[in-house]
Amino acid sequence: MTRTPIVAANWKMNLTLDESRRFINDLVPQLIRFDNVERVICPTFIALPFVADRLEDTPLKVGAQNVHWETSGAFTSQIAPPMLQGLAEYVIIGHSEVRQYLNETDEIINRKVKAALAHGLKPILAVGESDALNQAGSTHEFVSGQLRAALQGVSGEQMQQIVIAYEPIWAIGTGRNATGEFANEIVKNTVRGTITELYGETIAQTIRIQYGGSVKSSNMEEYMQYPDIDGALVGGASLKVDEFVRLVEITDQIKG
């Protein structure tokens, strides 16, 4: 089954509004030509309206970096799903930095996944293990558990709107990265394997699964050569126009 590769730029807490304007204006003309790859830009909330407007008449997609599970209410600083409608198509949920620094639990992430889906937003659901868990050989058990918890109450039809990002915590922003072989093993046997157990082989084969964690042009080719890795969720390398364009180009050449 053919899956359209997807490469998403997670800007995290970087770029002011002016910097975002300059960056996206430089980036867009260079990304337009890669029609065989779905390209998603996830800016900060302050830049989201501008980026959405700039990308409106392009094939590039917009994603938000998080969302609350309630539609409104006394939740100071938070962004509700309806507020993203018309601005973003995707939303990152469960990134390890959000789990760690904002103490988001599996239960919270599950509520956010269901809220996003209910409002027509496509979750990019991030999962991944710590270095200690990896060293202990507990990656499969832990990541599978994260998936099962996050997908509680999600139907098979809804599941097909979700992208999974496998991001080992020990590789995010550290310069360390998983080998292609290891990443593909987890993506294929743990992530796609768990989805198969939950939803069946047919649905599991439609789900796109990204790798993330110190992805850069020097290792992107290694990851994209594996058939079960369908793209990348990119952090630091997405803040350099030429580098991010190169990541999309490599994906297009191998999987396009």
Describe this structure in words.
By secondary structure, the chain is α/β, with parallel strands linked by helices. It has a single domain, classed as Aldolase class I (TIM Barrel, Alpha-Beta Barrel). The chain is 45% helix and 14% strand. Strands 7-6-5-4-3-2-1-8 form an 8-stranded parallel β-sheet. Strand 3, helix 3 and strand 4 (90-93) form a beta-alpha-beta unit. The chain is globular, with a radius of gyration of 17 Å.
Q: Residue share in helices?
A: 40-55%
Sheet with the most strands, sense and barrel status: 8 strands, parallel
Class based on secondary structure composition and strand pairing: alpha/beta
Q: State mean pLDDT (0 to 100 scale).
A: 96
Number of helices: 12
Report strand %: 5-15%
CATH level-two architecture: Alpha-Beta Barrel
CATH topology: the name is: TIM Barrel
Q: SSE layout and pairings?
A:
Elements: E1 6-10, H1 17-31, E2 38-42, H2 48-55, E3 61-64, H3 81-84, E4 90-93, H4 96-101, H5 106-118, E5 122-127, H6 131-135, H7 139-150, H8 156-159, E6 163-166, H9 180-199, H10 201-204, E7 209-211, H11 217-224, E8 231-234, H12 241-255
Parallel strand pairs: 1-2, 1-8, 2-3, 3-4, 4-5, 5-6, 6-7
Helix pairs in contact: 1-2, 1-12, 7-9, 9-11, 11-12
Keywords:
single chain, 256 residues, alpha/beta, TIM Barrel, eight-stranded parallel sheet, 12 helices, globular
Brief summary of the model shown:
The chain has helices at 17-31, 48-55, 81-84, 96-101, 106-118, 131-135, 139-150, 156-159, 180-199, 201-204, 217-224, 241-255, and strands spanning 6-10, 38-42, 61-64, 90-93, 122-127, 163-166, 209-211, 231-234.
